[in-house]
Amino acid sequence: MADRVTSFEHIGLVGHWYGFLLAGFYHFAHGDDLPDQAARAPMIVEFCRQFQVPVTDQHPELPVTAAVRERVKALLAERGLDPAELILIHPGPSWPVKEWPGESWMQLVSELRAAGHTHIAQLGVGRYMNFGIVSVEGIPGTVSLVDRLTVEECIAVISLARLFVGIDSGLLHLAACARTPSVGLFGATLPQYFYPAEFRKHFVVADVECVGCYHRLPRLHWITGCLYDIRCMKTLGVNEVLQAVLARLSPPVLR
User: Nearest to residue 122, comparing CAs of 84, 165, 180?
Assistant: First the structure.
């Protein structure tokens, strides 16, 4: 149920004639979408100000039906996963500039298992929408839930999990909506423009001078390739991520 409804105006000739095709896309001025510019304020704040909608940086809570929650619990039980100990990882796939190297994910999972955290599942889809050419391999040491869940089931499993670890993606936003403790990995984008302070306090952000380039400087190089070989994500240290994850897992779950 909505508290307030607003509308978008179709802008330009294309919007005028083909608005029925473009209705699924937002159309408002945001720094992340402007040539050679980056965001200067959270996206939701820029959006709300333009449409006179009350501003909040909190993600809306997404409800899950009892039937879906029970179905997901049964699926986890079949795979020997305890929701109270469950760590979900999401390596992608996404634009290459947002992905953390597969070797780093493998080392992270290995370190977590060595520390006694063995209920780890990989979430997401097998191929990204970019013409189906971008894919992510399964991470050894995890139980694969890739391509096994609907969107509502994804929300349910995230809401049940003890921790979510992932790149900047829609699933990380779902974790924010589910209020699930999370560790986000960032380089080309900056979490302060998309997530509230409390939720992002254990996020890990690359330490390079070009961090937060929004993979749009120059325009479109998130498609053609980063000029700096995606050093933001490639230099994000496994130990740094591991410490953030362990901090988020503390204190231990009480039985």
Answer: 165
Residue given tokens 């500039």 in the structure block = 97
Strands 120-122 and 143-144 come out as parallel
CA pair distance 100, 95, nearest whole angstrom: 11
What's the pLDDT at 114?
97
Give the closest residue to 244 by CA, choosing from 177, 208, 194, 191.
191
Q: How far apart are CA 59 and CA 175, in angstroms?
A: 9
Q: Give the Cα separation of 245 and 87 in Å (integer).
A: 10
Whole-angstrom distance, CA of residue 200 vs CA of residue 5: 28
pLDDT of residue 24: 47
At residue 1 the predicted structure's pLDDT band, cuts being 50, 70 and 90, is very low
- Three-state DSSP state, 240: helix
Strand partners, 89: 122, 165
- 148 CB-side CA count, 13 A: 14
Whole-number Å distance between alpha carbons of 184 and 174: 12
Residue with the larger pLDDT of the pair 68 and 226? 68
Residues forming a β-bridge with 165: 89, 183
Rounded CA-CA distance 211/233 in Å is 9
Q: What is the pTM of this model?
A: 0.82
Q: Tell me the per-residue pLDDT of 107-142, one tens digit each, with 9 for 90 and over.
A: 999 999 999 999 999 999 988 766 556 677 899 999
Residues 6+ apart with CB under 8 A from 39: 30, 31, 32, 46, 190, 193, 214
